[in-house]
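Researcher: Batch entry, complex prediction.
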Amino acid sequence: MLLTLKIFRFDPEKDKSPYYQTFEVEASPTDRLLDCLNRIRWEQDPTLSFRMACGHGSCGSDAMRINGICGLACQKLVRSFQEEILVEPLSGFKVVKDLVVDLNPFFEKYHSIKPYLITHTPPPETERRQSPEEHQRFEEAIRCILCACCTASCPVYQNKGTEDYVDPAALGRVFRYLFDSRDEGTKERLDLLDQPPMAWGCQTFWKCTEVCPKEIPVTKQIGQIKRRIYESKPEK
Amino acid sequence: MIFNHDTVIIGAGLAGLRAAVECAGKMDVAVVSKVFPTRSPSGAAQGGITASLGNEEEDRWEWHFFDTVKGGDYLGDQDAIEVMVRDAPRVIYELEHMGIPFNRTSEGKIAQRNSEGHTQDYGKKPVKRACYAGESTGRVILDALYDQCLRYQVKFYLEHYLLSLVFDGKRYAGAVIYDLSRGQLHLLRSRAILLATGGCGRIYKTTSNSFASTGDGMSLALQAGIPLEDMEFVQFHPTGLYPLGILISEVARGEGGILRNRLGERFMERHAPKMKELAPGDVVSRAILREIREGRGIDGRDYVHLDLTHLGDEIIEKRLWEIAFCSRTYLGVDPVYEPIPVQPTCHYMMGGIPTDLEGRVLTDEKGSMAPGLYAAGECACVSLHGANRLGCNSLLDLLVFGRRSGLAMKREALQYDIPSLSEEPLEKASSFIRRLLNQGKEKSDPIRRRMQTVMMEHGSVSRNEAGLKKGIEEIQSLKERYREVRVFDSKKSFNYELMEAIELGHQLDLAEAILVSALHRRESRGAHWREDFPHRADRSYLKHTLIFQTPKGLEVRYKPVRITRFQPEARIY
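Model: Structure tokens for the complex:
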């Protein structure tokens, strides 16, 4: 099939403002969108820039906006699209070149929520015990690959005035530790999460859940975090 | 620009990051990665990590030791393997204490499951030895180590690409790197350098590997006069999704998946009566190839079926979520109801840069050292995996030998001064890039595609003399064309064409090294299967290949295998 890709282009070295460029690619229905982008780069225009690595949805490099919806180019088969596909960089981040965005703010926010197990008691010689039921509470969360699709889709994060909201990816990660029975940092986590731009920033738009390439129920997790904060407060 | 660091680590996968964690706090550590650290291929490892914890059933490190030796068809160095398997339980507990969310048994211990080639009591029956965190084991460890690095102030050069290693006449003293985002060159001067640059599966057309797996570190070592060890041993994972080559992890077989041919037969019963689908990867890949060659591929084509339908939707949704998701996404095949089409896919390099047990790079068959240079992980060859790596042993390798090389650097490097290198290596790198940008006429892409096809035809699961010779000739003529390669994108920022052109040079060098090593090994062992020499020949070939780049071309030499406990026996599963 002959596909038309309309791609966002911007090279700060030479362009005053971004523009869209259209490419035609011959593709088979089971090709990944990533294959088409590579074919453009290898056969038509070597200057097209986008990130990629694993090519099968486990590294999170090739997150972009595809027909307006954030997703991984390596997870989208061209047969699921009509003739023209609109390809743009993730929204909410500064464009460095073409489809490459500056993800430093994303990782800074992620690191601000203490994405690690907090413990005060010394570990036993072998493993800390945890029941399968305790493990199950956070098990979906460990699939997260930090691709930033959820954050780039979040209306709160995009809106002026609320852009300091910590973002769904970071909250999804903190969920994993808050609900891990081995973690001993509950109080400091809850104090942090109770700050205005943290958990309460979520307005339950469900966009994060809709786009997550790993089908993680992010919105539900944020809801559980809010409930946990609420329940930790003394009754009035 | 010139920067100084006590130690420079190239590669931010598990081996590199584990070494960095070891050194951090004690010395000034820099990690260079051509991708973001959480994007490294280690993160794609789904199967798990082996250790003889015995949480599910009786297990002993001696059995793990034996399985790894036999899995590697007796080519692995047994002193190294013993170090790895004895250290394995410590590694798992360390990870658990770091917060890795391992699955659990009903008693609350770390759960374990079957993985190919792992047995109880020296081969009697399969044993549950692989610890796992859902299907995200590699990824959660990668994220955890990256986080530790940041807490310990490790300096990251993200999206920086290694161009050359600098030798000051006495020691390896630094590296020239290229900043992909800005198009600038930097010289990093250091007391020690660790290569943790991973494998080179992208030399092959059908591969599970990341686009980043281009073997840069191995190739730069070869160019520096360091040999590469056992490069003919290239692992083809039995179950790549047909036709993309994306990995369907061995978890599927560990949980009870069955391989079937066109007639619906469980053909592994014939090829490995005891272990069946849980036989090592090379045995299963060869069995699949044989079924296909004998006309029992599905629809007469070159794939077979991986059948999970008998497992039921609960097991599939809970324990094989990733596999089911992949199969549904890429093929529209729902494994709850239909079998998954699979074919062998290039997955892992057993060979690499020879090192001792502390990650120190060796420069010849006598054990001479390359001062200041270390290697760990898939780019290195200790040799643990011999002629074939067992499932779930690679994460263990990365963490055991990543740590050991970190310890060695911490112990050894600080006694040397940071070298006072001139700007000459920078000028050399800069003129190399100028040439790529301004001279020549060939595009990289057609050369790369041809190389990938040649390697599939002549250097994959099954090999023979005529094919290997033809393959070598073809790669050499591609190397001629590569001399004329030109980069047409002249932009400084995110010039991926430039990076891929440089990678292609490395890939071609390694392709030739693989084929030449394979041509010289006139026997079949592990992943190296010669149709014209179908048997293992211990009397002539129980030895490691070392391939050197010399002014006259590639030269093959050998060194002995270190056997401490298990004498070679017939390898039957």
